[in-house]
Structure formats: C-alpha cells, structure tokens
Amino acid sequence: MDSTAVARIKRYLVDKLRCEYYDLGAILFNMRQLARMSGYELDERFSRAGLGAGPEARIAAEIVDRSLGGGGGSCSTESELKLMTDRWVRTTRPMGG
After folding, report:
1. Burial of 44 by CB count in 10 Å (0-12 exposed, 13-18 middle, 19+ buried)?
2. Please, are residues 58 and 35 in contact by the beta-carbon 8 Å criterion?
3. Of 63, 72, 68, which Cα lies nearest the Cα of 13?
C-alpha cells in the first residue's frame, strides 16, 4: 500500500466530500476490503478498476481516482460518492482517523 496515496485519499475525503476525520478509518477499511477482493491495493491500479470490480468497488475506485488526480472519467457524481461513504460509516464500527 502506498502511504502517499492513502494520505491523498484522506485529504480528498475531508476536503471534497466533507467527511469527518474520525470516520476516515471506517471508510478506508471498506475501501481496502473492496480493493483486496478485486485483487488490488489502494493505489493507482485500483483507481482504474471501475465497474469490473463490482458496483460498490466502482465507487471506491472513483474516490481513489479523483483523489490521485485522475481524470474522473466515471459516471459517478459527488453525491453518489458521499452517499456510499455515509453508508460505510453507518455500517462499520468506529475506527478513528
């Protein structure tokens, strides 16, 4: 896992999606799980996984792509990204930042 990529993902979640810092642990836990199930880690390779990784992983891959400065060529809107991160926070135990 690339620590620089994780730091950029955290910054994107806080700045663009307005996630609470305390909720980042739960969000990143879910994103890591989805990346592992697809055979990736949270890095630029996972950002190109798209719908081939599954519908929920598509959202995670889009977050990674946008946070790493990718083109964001997906059909996901920011509100869809926010809805999924809110769902991950509700369904995962608190893990801190």
Report:
1. middle
2. no
3. 63
Q: What is the CA radius of gyration of the chain?
A: 12
Q: Tell me the per-residue pLDDT of 55-81, one tens digit each, with 9 for 90 and over.
A: 888 899 999 999 988 766 667 788 999
* Closest to 42 (Cα-Cα) out of 94, 6, 93: 6
Of 57, 54, 53, 64, nearest in space to 13 by CA? 64
CA distance 95 to 71: 30
**What digits encode the pLDDT tens for the residues 8-60?**
999 999 999 999 999 999 999 999 999 999 888 888 888 887 767 788 888 99
Please tell me the total number of residues recorded for the chain in this structure. Answer: 97
Residues 6+ apart with CB under 8 A from 31: 9, 42, 60, 63, 64, 88
Instruction: Specify the pTM.
Output: 0.89
